[in-house]
Amino acid sequence: FYYFIRLCLDKILLQCVLQSRTLSGADAINALRPFYFAVHPDFFGQHPKEREINENSLKRLNGYLENLQKPGFRSLKPTQLTFYVRETEPNSSNVQESFSASGFRAVSFTLHTRDLLSTVLDILNSCSLSTEHIQSLNVNSQPHKEVKSTVNRPIKWDKTYYSFTGFKDPEEELEQAQRVETTLISWLDDNEAMLSFTFLFRWQRSWGIAHRCSQLHSLARLVQQRPEVLKNVKGRTVVFTDRSGMSAAGHIMLGTMDVHHHWTKIFERLPNYYKLQKRLLFLEDRISQLLGGIQVIYIEELQPLLTLEEYYETLNSFYNKLHDSRLPFHPRSLRGLQMILESDRYAPSLHEFGHFMIPTLCDPEALQWFIFTKAQEARENLKRKEEMMITEKELIGTSTEKFSLDRLYKEPSVSSAQMIDCCKRLLEESLPYLQGMHLCISHFYSVLQDGDLCIPWNWK
Length: 460
Prior knowledge:
Elements: H1 2-21, H2 25-31, H3 33-39, H4 48-68, E1 79-85, E2 96-99, E3 105-111, H5 116-126, H6 144-151, H7 159-165, H8 170-179, H9 184-190, H10 192-198, E4 199-203, H11 209-225, E5 236-241, E6 245-246, E7 252-255, H12 260-268, H13 270-290, E8 295-296, H14 308-325, E9 338-342, E10 349-350, E11 356-359, H15 364-402, E12 407-410, H16 416-426, E13 438-442, E14 446-447, E15 453-456
Parallel strand pairs: 4-5, 5-7, 8-9, 9-11, 12-13, 13-15
Antiparallel strand pairs: 1-3, 2-3, 6-7, 10-11, 14-15
Helix pairs in contact: 4-11, 13-14, 15-16
């Protein structure tokens, strides 16, 4: 019994010593606050190059820190990062530094440490930021390897000790963690039912696979911590974009630079968003009735990204203007036609796809005359659009098959007419080296991070 008590005391003492020198994930975030403040992309709104570099580097850094906290990790590949820091007096160091034309300091460094504390210190020192505040976190600021010989001595406990005390065997936990270590694929497999029947994922920007995995991992971690937040997401589309909220199209937007607290607030606020969405649909129906049955639509590819609140205000303002003017449209005379509202135009126009583009500030009488005179042309354009979409789909299939492409797609800014012209000319060529590739029809030549090949639709 005395020996057993002695073992318990030794274990407790060992845990206390280890706890006094290790850094938790929350401590690491607090310690890195000066760094996050110095490199946060919001400070680079007028400098898109620096902003994008910081966004990409922050995602890679967060992935590195998360891997450090995984149970049973063995080693990490050295990760080289570059950040633009708001300009301070440059200090002499072995870190590569340069000043951009915008006045921000570029800092490049490589992470290769195996514990949180050393990693945090390396980041702060590389950016010439103070490390004095780390002392208040009650951790030993000396490198991990200097104390390893005193407290990290190998201790092997007998299996009966764990079965008698109820403590968890760390070796057994480590083996189990290594066997079932969570990856993106395994997490998606485990949650296949929830993901397949609850909501869909989309990205507003052309993020690479590494960024998408990072964003999905962040969402997965939130769901694990707060599984109840998904109760209002069923049947919806989740879009990772630059803003958080609900879009005019009814998609749930998660800002890629927002913290989990903001995402949680969005999920909790969804019932109110759904109520506003019902009011918005009712408003669209009222506008349609006033304009002879013409359908009000919102096309994400052709309109700016609007939140649900912004779009509702636009519709409400336009409805009040129409209601006061009392235009004499015959009921259902314009049924089958479509229109979108725009706030940056002053004159109505007819799109090649057949929908009317109506400014919110358009004079009601001018609007009435324009719709009457363009109604037949709009119907012809809509019919031609349907025919072009069928032709486009057939040409994409034929081109994919002929060149053995893994994927052929276009950017939203490329019209159906441009895509048709591009595919017809491609089919006249012999391009064996496209086999197995992802080909994107765009406006320029480039190779995306994931290996997709972009060519302009009017290639020569």
